[in-house]
Every structure is written in C-alpha cells, then in structure tokens.
C-alpha cells in the first residue's frame, strides 16, 4: 500500500517540470580548509546543486565554487558566509527568471542554428542535412539509450580512401545546452563552406569528421521536459530512487577513483562498471572499431571557457604534453582572435580539477593522441543558462579552435 502511494506521488511529481523560482547561484571562494568544510557540510544537509566544480568532492581552497541553492536556504547561507568571512557573490539572483530569459522568444517552430533545439528537432535536422548533402554527410545510428532512443552519428567529409578522422561529440551532460548547438553549427559550416572556403574544403577533402550531436539523449530530453538542471544519464540504479550515471566518470580511465563516487545519488556517480551506460558503451564501441582512422577526439562541454587535455585522472604529465600544450595554445589564440574571449588551457587535472573516468583520458590512453575537452562559454554569468543570443558567437569562435586542431591533425597525424 505504502509503496503504491509513494510511487504514485513520484509519478505525479515528475509530470510537472521542476521550477527554480528564487533559486540563487552562488560563487564562493573558500580561503582555507575550514571554508571548504563549511560548504561541504552545507551540502550534506541541504540540496546544493554544484555547477562548477561538478560536485562538493572537487572543492579546493582558493578556487571559486559555483552552486545553486533554493530560495528557502539562500539567506541562511549568506549569513553563514558573512559570519565565517567566506567571500562570495551571487551570480544569478533568480534562476527561473534567467532560465526563461535564455530562450529568445516563445515561438519555437522548427530548427534554428541560433536557438536551443529540442531533441526531436535535432533528430529531424540530422536526417535532413544528411538527405540534402549525400555527397558530404551521412547519418548512422551507433547505439540506443537506456530509455530506447537512437544515438545518431554524422560522418562529414568527401568520400575518399584511407582518410584520417576527427571525432567530435556533444551533449555528454544534459544541461550544457550550448554543446549540442555547437555540433549542429559545425555540420552547417562544413556543408556551407565546402567548395567556397579553401581551408574548410581542404579539411573535408582530406579528413572525415564524425560528429555526434547528442550523446546523452535521455538526459537532454529530460532537461527539456522535467528538470533543466539535469546532468547525468537517466538509467535506473538498483536499491535507490536516485537516477543516472555521470557519463564523463564512466570510462576506463582510472575509473572509480578521484573526483567520482560510487554513490548513485551523486552528480559524479561513476556507474557500476566502466561503460555501464548504453550511451558511453556505444561511443566506446564506435571509437574502438574505428581506432585506425580516428586521430583526434574532441568532446564539447560547458561552461568555464577552457581547453583541456589529458590527464585529468592524475597530475603526472602526458607523454605528449609539449605538443598538446602548444596545440592548445594555438587553438585558444585562434578562438580568442575573433571576439577576444579569454580561455584557459592545460592538462585537466591542473587546470580544472582531478577527476577520473573521463572520455578524453580514456581516448588518449586508447591511442588517440589529440584528445581535448572544450568547456564553452561563459565563465559563470549565466553558466548553464547561457542566452540563445550568445550561441552564434560561441560557435563561431569555437570553430576556429576546432579548425586549428584539425589542420594540425592533417599535417601531423
Ligand atoms: N567539466 C568536465 C567534467 O567534469 C571536465 C572534464 C575534464 N576531463 C576529465 N577527464 N575530467 O566532466
Ligand atoms: Zn560537462
């Protein structure tokens, strides 16, 4: 009887999307270990949604921590921070307002490169762009999500023998909406530039680009219908009501160690085994079967304006550190040249935080030397609710970095 009631009320609750009225996004900068412990203890008795870093586990002295807190606890948190001399600012005063402002207008008909598109719209777009450019784009399904949705991959390039490839994926984390927007933009640019832009034509003649517009399709769908702040997959975990695994803690890269946990309720839950998720398994399988051609692996996240390369699971430098560092520098310079957007770059463990199970480290250890994680705009003013008005500039500047890396791959791999 009780279970029936509980299940029924959960089903009812999940029918309406979560709202964020009055929720605030804080930026706190812990000055010492006591401050770190204070935030951790807050997180243990009230729901704090960590935006950057992704979990309270990753807090560090001197590094900004962005997190969302409910209206009911926000004032107490501020009082506590003041009392303890913990410097903080409020980045977003009312998340619901910021969220509603993120979408340019309410008339959302059809696909647009300068809007956030719903999953079904992205599915239809990917079918169309392949159908309309059969000589340049083809679509295949590389797997099926936990909830049964197709995971599509676009192959972009002029058919040719023995071509090397650059693999780009978007939409690992559901709430990072600007990421899928970038993958769509990339394909549009390829199609529009072929035959008219010499640089891109050369790249497409000599390389293939595998573009995966949304990996975590269930999570992305859920972030539109139910909880805009959803991050993980939507797989059901045993013996708990908590749902989902962090796909970027789910790869065989020192899996299940630092910056990840085995608690299913955590935002950085690593899953039961590496590639436990159908989505990460599909990605892993595809890359393993195409290892001889794939020379670069680029995975697109947001936010914080960073270009990261291995390692994230340890501090020790990668074998190719020097080359990756100067490639990252060149890519970031290209990116910044357009609008002056400031990016930091370097190995993940030093630049953002130590964390295990990431796809970039896994790809690198699997033999793909040019492995990078992009963290797109912004640096926290809007965070995950980046306004649609910034999609165009974000994608344009990111294109420059991706082309820079691709040219290097073409000339060196
Ligand atoms: N924000 C990303 C994440 O936490 C950063 C990924 C960097 N790479 C890594 N292997 N952790 O998933
Ligand atoms: Zn992410």
What attributes does this structure have?
four-stranded antiparallel beta sheet, eight-stranded mixed beta sheet, globular, alpha/beta, binds arginine, Aminopeptidase, 413 residues, Alpha-Beta Plaits
Describe the structure.
By secondary structure, this protein is α/β, with parallel strands linked by helices. It has 2 domains: 2-102, 2-Layer Sandwich (Alpha-Beta Plaits), CATH 3.30.70.340; 119-412, Aminopeptidase (3-Layer(aba) Sandwich), CATH 3.40.630.10. It is 38% helix and 17% strand. The chain contains 13 helices and 12 strands. The strands form 2 sheets. It has an 8-stranded mixed sheet with strand order 5-6-8-7-9-12-10-11, sandwiched between helices. Strands 2-3-1-4 form a 4-stranded antiparallel sheet. Helix 10 runs antiparallel to helix 13. The radius of gyration is 21 Å and the shape is globular. The structure holds arginine and zinc ion. The site of arginine has 12 residues, from helix 12. Zinc ion binds at residues 172-173, 176, 301.
Spatially, the strands of the biggest sheet line up as 5-6-8-7-9-12-10-11
Describe the biggest sheet?
8 strands, mixed
User: Helical stretch count?
Assistant: 13
Helix percent band: 25-40%
- What is the level 1 CATH name of the largest domain? Alpha Beta
N-C termini distance: 63 Å
CATH architecture of the largest domain: 3-Layer(aba) Sandwich
Order of helical and strand elements:
HEHEEHEHHEEEHHEHHEEHEHHEH
Strand content: 15-25%
User: CATH homologous superfamily of the largest domain?
Assistant: Zn peptidases
Number of domains: 2
Question: Count of DSSP E strands?
Answer: 12
Bound molecules: arginine, zinc ion
Signal peptide: 1-15
Catalytic activity: Preferential release of a C-terminal lysine or arginine amino acid
Keywords: Carboxypeptidase, Disulfide bond, Hydrolase, Metal-binding, Metalloprotease, Protease, Signal, Zinc
Family: Belongs to the peptidase M14 family.
